[in-house]
Design brief:
- The chain has 181 residues and is mainly α.
- It has helices at residues 2-70, 75-116, 122-143, 153-179.
- The protein has one domain.
- It contains four helices and no strands.
Length: 181
């Protein structure tokens, strides 16, 4: 009789171990799926970025050609304005693509935290919210690039670039911390 109890107890422990192992497998599979979805979304962002830049280049090539064919008195100044417009549009497009990639990774981090459920540390949830606010601030800055005066263009774009770099690093740290839980 005692042997049956011991065997029953061992069976229960083995079953619990398998359930734990299956739970880990499901957890790992969900995390991997989130990573795969994020990678696929980043590839779409790259394609969109390339198409946007091609469109910008075509639009400005047409503008340059129109100025050349019209041969206005201030042709040089008009060409310069078109060139500045193209540089701004290209910068904004590139910054938007970088921001979109960070957003994709930020969304993946949010999904990973939800997979953790109640096991997710409060500090990571707070870091996610802080990072989301930093993202929103940069998104406003990138959206308003066309309103930056020429006199502060370089300083403003340097600030945006530094913000994007900082945000990217922050999201990477956050993702690494989540995966370490």
């Amino acid at each position: 009789m005692r042997t049956y109890r011991v065997i029953g107890f061992i069976s229960i422990l083995a079953g619990a171990g398998c359930a734990s192992s299956q739970g880990e497998q499901v957890h790992d599979a969900r995390m991997e799926q989130i990573n795969e979805n994020a990678n696929a979304s980043e590839k779409v962002t790259d394609s969109t970025q390339t198409a946007r830049e091609d469109s910008i280049e075509q639009q400005h090539d047409v503008a340059h050609a129109q100025i050349d064919s019209a041969n206005p008195p201030a042709e040089g100044a008009s060409q310069d304005l078109v060139k500045v417009s193209e540089e701004r549009a290209t910068y904004q497009s590139q910054a938007k693509a970088r921001l979109d990639k960070v957003r994709i990774r930020l969304d993946a981090a949010r999904q990973k935290l939800s997979v953790l459920g109640p096991r997710a540390p409060t500090a990571l949830r707070g870091e996610l919210e802080t990072t989301s606010r930093q993202y929103q601030t940069l998104e406003r800055d990138v959206t308003s690039v066309n309103q930056i005066p020429a006199t502060s263009w370089e300083a403003s774009t340097d600030k945006i670039d530094e913000g994007l770099k900082s945000l990217d690093e922050r999201v990477t740290k956050l993702s690494d911390s989540i995966e370490g839980v």
